[in-house]
Structure formats: structure tokens, C-alpha cells
Sequence to fold (905 residues):
Amino acid sequence: MRRLAGLLALAAVPTAVLAVFFLLPVTGMLQRGFWTDGSFDPGAVLEVLGRERTGRVIWFTLWTSATSTVVAVVLGLPAAYVLHRLAIPLRGAVRAALLVPFVLPTVVVGIAIRELVADSGPLGFLGLDGTPYAILIGLVFFNVAVVIRTVGTAWESLDRRPAEAAAALGASPVQVLTTVTLPALRPAIVSAAAVVFLFCATGFGVVLMLGGTRYASVETEIYLLTTGAITGSVEYQAAAALSLVQLAAVVVLLAVAARLRAVPDPTVRRALAVPARPRKQDVPALVATGLVLVAIAAPVVTLVVGSLRRDGAWTLVHYRALQGTGEDAGAAGMGGGLLRAPVTEALANSLRIAVDATWMSLLLGLLVAFVVTRRARGRAEASVRNVFDGLFMLPLGVSAVTLGFGFLITLDDPPIDLRSSPLLVPVAQALVALPLVVRVLVPVLQGIDDRQRQAAASLGAGPLRTLLTVDAPVLWRPLLAAAGFAFAVSLGEFGATSFIVRAEVPTLPVVIYRLIGSPGALNYGTAMAASVVLAGATALVILLVERLRVPGVGVI
Amino acid sequence: MRIRPLVALATLALLGSSCSLANEDDKSDDAAPGECGDVVLVTHDSFDLPKKLVAAFEKESGCSLTHSPAGDGGELTSKLTVTQGDPIGDVAFGVDNTFAGAALEAGVFAPYDADLPSGADQYLLEGDDEGVLTPVDNASVCVNVDTAWFADNDLEPPTTLDDLVDPAYRDLFVTPAATTSTPGLAFLLATIGEYDDDWVAYWEDLVANGAKVVKGWEDAYYVDFTFSGGDRPIVLSYDTSPAYTVAEGESSTAALLDTCFRQVEYAGVLEGAANPEGAERVIDFLLGPEVQAALPTSMYVFPVDADATLPPEWAQFAEQPAAPIEVPAADISEHRREWLMEWTDITSS
Fold:
């Protein structure tokens, strides 16, 4: 009983935070959709679901996500093999480089892909600009890393004896692959595919920047509806309807994925295969990996080159423009610039906000991870724990846009009037990063043998001492890694932030989106330069994290 | 498991570099008695006034004016609607007669009975019974053509809305979107006023004839229009725009006066404003003779003050339509959503 009370006490803080900053905004938004003038009126929401445009949006989301997932898996598998099973030169560096796209801010990826497929870009001859294929490229670019990571981690620890036995019995390499290796990897592949599908279906910045109102996914449609871009007024009903569709779909997807990968967690206590020297039969995989690397480098290189060129010559003018406030095509008098603050100030804001968002998500994530990994004694405790576990994965299922819009409309009345508080943006970003943090920490805590704690306790250590001597030494590295991810997520967060950011304290992604949406070559160039800076900052953080990485702690 | 001091240090440095919570200056909204204090003026992105006038106003009134652009006209209205009651500023400028209905319905504005300059009362919004919106400027949205381009290409420029669906003008027209920009919506209303229920068919033809829809007026005029170096010689702009393209006593563009819809832009005190007195002073400032006279050169719009002097080239090149196309304000309020939804369907499929 005292344990249960302790558990609940530990759970109280994050639950309260979640209630105020997550459940309240989301229900606030849904409420505005379902209740008109104080009476329950779900008719309007149902009507939205029957609209032709809604059907088109849902279908677009499904087919782009499914296609991108398949392409990402096909491209990712050979690279997972090469980077996690073969001893190739610069393996660590290549692995780290491939992780970068996943954490790149979505506005950066949007601008990079746009630059790549624009009529004047390297892929201009394909005429992809303004087509859904540009969006597909963006989604795949983002998510190949997830496949490589997740599948590679499993592949690394795959027992190689069955494959060797099959080979000894006369199976060809292809037979070994299809009858032994792939079946063994199936849980990891399915799990990766599910996550990729989820990320594609809820992807925001890339789809918004490349698709506009023409090719909208559920997530961008919610944004367009709540900013009045579809009907000129704020469409609460339609936005609520789509948020519900998305929430339901994500919950189903997470449940299915959890079921499909109900296998022993491959990340705990595993034997790592020694990387093998590449052989002749590995050539196709090596070539495929090389191509993936080129494909991932292409948008990044295009972006960097684009930021350094103007009127056909090399220049730093776009980087110098970062100290300015953009170029306002019409206005030259009052204020003059397009932005409220120089771009460099927006970068400083972003960094400062990311620091706050990081500690908040770490604090919450740690509490959650502790609660969910405590060994349950008795049914009551177990069910409390399960509810809690599910509760904190919810932010994964609710779109960042819904969250941001909910913040905007619910957190502006006393007693919780935070709309003009500098804490609002970091809190929202911390919530967006929270599932990621929890996913990093939980496997680690689960991996600690409870008997160690018991031993410590029986030797006379108090709970705090046990924590410090047993948990802390194992935890600090993953904690730093989680901090890095949270920091990167926060730096690039755009969906929720775009709603609640204060005009005078803009973040860098918001500024980039603003610049890119305004006419003028200088604005576009400045947006590219700002994107390079933002990408650089994010990549730096991730490379540091990568160096910390405990082998096999399969993040993402 | 050896600690890598370098990594740890770098991480710490990164985290420490920009610590932490609220270390920005906390600006206070409270004004000393008798002073005006901070006033936040929310506008659309095209708002601009000479710095000198703003400085003179601040000096004279004691107000410290902060300008906060909130996106295109449509975005501005949406933002004001969503934050109704706890506004993002004290006073808003730039909601026009096409979007005003939405703002009025949502109760965004508080009443203010400003002293209107002579001739301005003809611009008051029909249906604004509480008197919350003050007209500041007006201009008619008209299709503009780059006459120089048409002369170079030996093509007769179009003159009517009908002409825009003529295959001779295929891929030559660019217009801002009706959902995101007020001139865009004004143009949609012009087509509705002209064609009635057949506007849907008209727009289908327009899209089929290669009309390009962009986000804002700036994108259309400054990016796609041939005068600004783009590749489309027909653009949705204003009756005042030809005065902007004057060189050596001649304008190289012309407004098609049979395609116009009159837009009036309003200012209003926001409901729940932190500084309503300051907000009212800003509205008076916008109606004052200096600002009214500066409107043509700063924002390319006509003042509502009949006595304000216009720049000389305006008399010659900014010809106003004698009979702009009209749609009753009540119809706009009632059908705006429905029209826009249909319009989005036509233009985005």
C-alpha cells in the first residue's frame, strides 16, 4: 500500500503537467468543435467527415505515408546491414551522418527539397516541383535514418549461427537472406515501418512547405483550417474532426505495432556481432548504401550551395543578411523589415527556449520512466503503471498542430493565463519531445536488474543511496543522449510553436517559414542561410549524442 | 564506460551558453497616469507608414507604438478571431470590408466613435451597428496588365473578366488566393458580383486557362508580375498600381476598370485591449491629416479624407472605377465561408 502511494506520488507531478498542458488544450479544441453556443452538436463534425476534401486529405495522407514507408524500408535495409554488420572504414562517422536527416528541422528539409527539385535545381529536369513526389522525397529523406537505426540495431545482435548453418547446408546467400535473416529481422522491420508510417502521417513542415493548400495531409489540413487558409475563418469543427481521425488512427497504429513487435526487447543485454570484413557478395549492399548516402547528402549539399550563391556568383551576402530583419517588398519606411527581430536574435531565442524545453522534458521523462519501470507487485500497481505508460505516449498521437492550437485557445484564461508567458513555447516543445525521452530512458531502466537494488537495500542503503549507486551510473549516458534529442527536437519544432510563439520572441524555424513565404530573392537566400545555421546547430548536438551512444541503445 | 571529458564539457557549454528561463526583459504594460503607455498596433503585412510620422505621434501623445504584423489580411482576421477577448495587441488595422463580417461575428472589436474626416462616412461598414470599425483608407482591387509587355508581344491586352478565360491569355494571369489575402477575396467577390451563381464555372475556366494562384498580393505583384521581373503580364492588383509604375511621364501598366471591387480598410480597438485609450489615440492618428496624406505614397491606397491632397501623378495615373462591381455586405457575411470553401476546392484540385 505504501509502495502504491509512493508510486502515485511520483506520478502526480507528470500527470498534473500532462493534464494542464496536454489534456486541457486538446479537449478545449475538441470541445469547440463539438459544442456550438453551449449545446452539444456533433452534426457539424460529422458533416466535415463526409466532405469530399476531407476524403481527399485522408487518402493523400495514407498513400504518401504508405509509399514513403515502403521506399524508406527498401532503401534502409541494405544500409542497415552494411553499417551494422560490416567492418567498413569510417563506419561511425557514416552512421552519425545518416542520423542527421531525422533530426533536421522540418522547415529546413522543406526548403532543401524545394531547392533540389526547383526548376533551377539539380533535379529540376524531372519537373517534380509542385507535385506530390517532392513531398515523397522529403518524407523518405527524413525517415530512412529510422529504418537504418532500428533494423541495424537488431541486425547487429542477430545470432549469426543459424545463417551459417543454412549456408553450410548449401543455401545460397539469397536463400539465407530470405529464409533465415529476414524472418528473424521481421519484428524490427515491422517496428521500424510502423514508426516511419507514423512520422510520415503526422509530418508537418515538409508537407506544408511543399504541398500548401493543394496537397494537404491530415496534419497540415488541421493547420490550414485553424489558420483560416481554407475558408477565410477558423474552422473549429473541421479541425476537431480531423484531430479525432488522426488520434484514432495513431492509437490503432501504436497498438498494432506493439502487438507485432511483441518479442524480447533486442536492446537489453545483447551479444553484439563482430563486424565482418566485406566480401564479394556484399557489393550490391555496399553500392546501395553508397546511393543512399548520396541521396541523403544531395538536398543538404544543394541547400548549402544555394545559401552561398547569388546571381550566379559565390557570396556570403545571405549570411550577412542574418543580422537584418528581412526585406519587406512593399514597405520601406516604418520598421522597414519583414521581421520583428533580426534572424540572429531568433537563433538566440531558439537556443534559449531549447535549453528550457530540454530540462523540462528530461525532468518529466525521468519521472515517467521511473514510474513505468518499477516492478509491479500486485494487480493494482500493474494497472496503474499501464495506464500511466499509455498516457504518456499520447502526445505522440496528437498532432503538434492540435496541441499548439489548443494552447492558444485554452491557456489564456485565469487561473492559467500563460499566453504571453515566455514558458509557453518551451512547455509545448517539451511535451512534443517527451515520448522520445521516455523511449530512450525506459529500456535502460528496464535493463537494470532489480536484484541489484534489492542487494543495495539489504546492505543498508536508503532509496536515495540506491538510486545514486545503482541507477545513476547506468543512466547518465542515456540521459545525456535523451537531452540531446530533446534539444534537437525543440530547436526544430515548428507545428506547435507556430501557433503560440510571441511575435517579438520568434524562433528560428518560425522566422525561416516567414522568410520563405515572402517575396524577394534576398529573403529566400536568407532563409537558406538560416536553415544551414539551424541544421548545423542541430547536427552538432546529434553528433555529440552519437559519441555518447551506448552501443545498441536503440533510440528513435 | 570512461567519461569523455571533451564531450561532457562541450555539452555542458552548449547547455550553459544560453541559460535559461525568463531572462528577457519584462516589459510592463502599466502606464504612468496621464501618459499613454505602450500600444501594440496589429496589422497585415502590407502596412507601412513614414517613420517620421510615427515618431512625431509618439512624441506628441506619449504613446510608445509597437507595430506587430500578423500575416496577410486573412491571417490577420483569423488571428484576431482566435484570440478574441485576450487580444494580441490593442488596436488592429487592416481588416477590410471582405473579411469584416467574420471579425464582427466573433466580437473582436470594441466600439469606438471616432471623429471622421469629411467624406469618410460613406465608407462606414454596412451592418456594423455597434460602431466598432473606423474606415481609414480605400482602394479598388482591379486586374492590372503590363501594357509594355503586351506591346512587345504584339498582343491586345484583355479588358474584361471574360477575356481572362480566353485561350489567347493562357498562363498569363496571377492572383493572390482568396483565402489568405484580402485583395484575393475581393477579386473572388468581383467575379461573384459579375457572374452570380455562374462564378463557379467561371473559376473552373480560369483555372483551366492556367491562372496561377499565390499566397499573398506581394507574391503576385512583386514575384510573378512581368513588371517586377516575373513571367505573367496580367496580375490582380489595385486601381492605384499604375501610379506606381510611372517612368518618364508614362505608366507601363494599366488597371482594367471594369473588373474592380472596392476595398475599404478599417481600424478598430480590440476587445479586451490592455490599453484601450492608447488604441483610440492610434485610430485618431490614422485619421489625422498627416497620415491620410501619406497613405497614397506609403501604402498605395486612397485616403478616406476627401480633403487630403493626392500626389500629382495620382490624378493622372490612378483612375478610380466609376462603377465598381458590388456584392451586398450581408451576402458576403452570409456566404463567405461557403464561397471560399468552394473556391478552395476549385483552385486546389
Remarks:
- Chain A touches chain B through 56 residues (CB under 8 Å).
- The radius of gyration of chain A is 24 Å.
- The CA atoms of residues 26 and 402 of chain A lie 7 Å apart.
- Confidence is low (pLDDT under 50) at residues 263-269, 330-336, 550-556 of chain A.
